[in-house]
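To whoever is on call:

I kicked off a structure prediction for a single chain this morning and the downstream step that reads the tokens threw a length-mismatch warning. I double-checked the sequence; it's 164 residues and nothing unusual in it as far as I can see. Pasting both halves so you can look.
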Amino acid sequence: MTHDLVTTLRPLLTAEASAEAYASGADPGDLEQAVWLRLLERLEADRPPRDPHRWLRSAVRMEARRCRRTTRAERPYAGEPADAVEREPEELVLTAARHRALHDAVRRLPGRCPRLMQALLSPRDLTYREIAGELGISQGSLGPERSRCLGCLRRLLTPEVAAR
């Protein structure tokens, strides 16, 4: 039953998400994922919608509106972080050495991890949407990808941290 519903709704969802994504500033893949999640939640709590096509169109529009509200609420930091105080020269040298070690380790990461980590570490303070656009991946897959890359980075840095 669920498989038939997914197979039936997939083309409509793809079209609806593509149509709504531009106006909401969201990635079509992210909208699709959110609507599939809503459908799974509904199936778990209740039963399939009586009119699945109508429900799907409504769910896509609701998710697009949610994305627009979220986008309007996001604001970049206006100033420096709160702990940006004057530091001693030796502290500055040690901090610079740690940053170099981190960036060296990031360059040794596999796959697209170096680009992702460099975007996350960027002084431009990029949003997930901007990072996803730069890397050409959906915003929804950034979290799992970031987690995997951080695990690799942790494994790379552990021997170096232990050696010191």
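Update from on-call: the warning came from a stale cache, not from the record. Cleared it. Sanity check on the structure: The chain has a mean pLDDT of 85.
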